[in-house]
Model the fold of this input.
Amino acid sequence: MKRLLRLLLVIILVAAAAISLRMFLTSRPVEVEVARPESDIAVRVFGLGTQEARIATKLGFETQAALVEARVDHGDRVKAGDLLARLDEGEARARLDKSQAGVAAAEAALAKSEALAARAQVVAQQKRRVDERRRSLVQRQTVSIEAAEQAELDARVAEADAAVAERDIEASRVALTAARAQAALDGVLLERHRLRAPFDGVVIARHRELGAVMNPGEALFTLVDPTSVWIQAFVDEARAGGLAADQAAEVRLRSRPDRAFTGRVARVGLENDRVGEERRVYVACDDCPSEFHLGEQAEVVVTTGRLARALLVPETALRMVGPAEAVGWVVADGRLKETRLGLGARLLDGRIEVIEGLPDGARVVTSKDAGGFRDGRAARLASPEATP
Done:
């Protein structure tokens, strides 16, 4: 019985000591760090993306034939209008030759029609003179009326023949126009067997080899305008609200992580990624290497604005209750108090701007709650210069 009493007494003493120690630890002032206002703070957002080209075209032919010539390959630079490749054009060349022969025949037919019309005009003039003489002779009763009537009929027939000859000229001209149009069409069809560069660029891929039968629209080369290379990056929607064109940006390529390149926002996408909930931003790099590699990963940091003066608190010291609201600890009159705070800009280093909700004279605690914070507990500022 005495042993049990002694054991119970020991347990009571240990519990009392623990309670006393806890009361001592929780009643003494806790040391905390607090936020201090800072000046001229850059607000930046981060985006991860790839190096792409705004002008990138897959080039192919508009007709079907075998590939007989390819003048360029991967890495070659070309000028607008340069001949890149050619298909077998035997049939198309024959059609063009036939059309050109048709043009020559139509020109000859027109010349013949014009000559016949000139002859018909001469004959008509001669017949009209004969008719006029016969009429004058009839009045003097030198020739018969039948001879005069025959001369008049011959004149009318000659004039009709001249009119027919003029219509033949018009028909020949129409035929010549049609022949020339056909030749022009066949020339266009022949040109479709030749692939030319639509702009100055670099060939980054060649998809088929000689002898392959190319189908209409099938890609033979991929051509890129090197001046249109930019970075397509994705920024979290929650932080993309301040993005705008012409903002300064910093670019780091995966292959050159040791160097930061300068650039500017060229475009902010009007359609977000619905799955990743991210906004597309396109950054034109000012001093990136001339040699580019499409698809290379790149990191982009865009400066969306600057804060003239701000109170910044680590996000780890806050308990988020909304997109722009959080509950945090403040020190007011030397004691801790949990307060709802309104938030502003978020920085890349994990700090958030406090813009409202802070009581007068209070300081926001930046220390993480280790379990000893409670409303009304005395607090001591860790840094003397942080004292208000």
About this structure: The radius of gyration is 47 Å. The first strand starts at residue 30 and ends at 32.
